[in-house]
What does this fold into?
Amino acid sequence: MRDFHPSQKLIYDSSARFKVICAGRRFGKSELSILSMMYFALLKPASKVVYFAPTITQARDIVWNNLKTYTKKAGIWAGDPNESRMEIPIKNIDGKGNVLPTISVIWLRGTENIESARGNRIDFLVADEVASMRNWGYIWNDVLRPTLTDTKGQAMFISTPKGFNHFYDLFNKSKTDEDYESFRFTTYDNPFIPKDEIEKAKLEIDTDTFKQEYMAEFVSVSGQVYKDFDVVRQFKVVDYDPHLEVHVSMDFGVNDPTAIIWIQSFGGEFRVIDYHEESNSNIDYFSALIKAKPYRQPSLFTGDPAGNARSIVTNTSPIEEYAKQGIHIRTKNGVKIHEQIRITHKYIPSLYVDNRLERFRDCILNYRYPDRKNNIFSTSNETPQHDEYSHSMRALEYYFTNIDSGGFLNRNQPIYLPQHDLSKWTFE
It folds into this structure.
């Protein structure tokens, strides 16, 4: 059977239950996945081994053909692969190489249909390109982790970094959980990649891209809009304070998700205490969600001026519909996107985000301008990318655009409340 190269072997030989691999492009992540699954399925009788990519198409493109090739050459098929379901039955052998009567199976799946994994008992899973998986917290905590409980199964998480998102948290989990071990390898660590090719790439692409894609370093994304947000200083414990007013800002979704932010302001600080993002729901649903939160009645709602536009079908606007629910949303018309961003930049150094809100953090760190040749950006008239990270940032920009005009709060006049410990709000 094909064997690991030395750096891959270090990972395979680890006894950790959960292995997190941060690796540069062409390190051999896919080969590591295939070989690890092959050996596990072969040596663990009647085991179920599952590979997850962000989409089922990626699973097919990344490993399916090579998985079939490697397992066939090794002579370990226990039957023909199922092409439509992307499953291969694998023989089992004992420690002496004798074939056992049991059979293991290797599946390939995509996390865009993660609910299909519910109810399964998995012995070993590989999650590939984790940094690109949406809703990772839900994918792992709610769906995949329980599949390993009965079997005391193992997992391998593999990715090239993508800014400081959930994969960054996962990589650092070994610091607090002994079940985890983290590994970091660069493209240089693959002995089969010519070093001169890597050096040539280094000359052709910008420094941050090279650090991320080849050196497997966690760096801010190229073209990041709010570079002043310091994730170390500003992403920390931010508890709800019942003595302070609550503000809510919204980006209305039709085909896109609706994004809702809960903010409290004190003494020039802006504290994001809660965040919700969801698609395929209506105004009644979001109104009920806002009212059900265990916070005091919001004193300010802000939102997208486009919400004033009336529907041809209903002859009412989203803002009018929310008003019927007792939610009166303020908007500021005539402010272009680049001006909203300019205003928001003023407040970013004073923004603190509760460290439970990983999705919101990912959005602020990955909200970016489109790529341009030679990494040149004209931020005065450039529009950030409209993608999965932009909706929360639009809601944040609507908020700061509205309060910047004054009248909603006085940033220089904090409210001092008796018998209330304010020391926890001191951020150094």
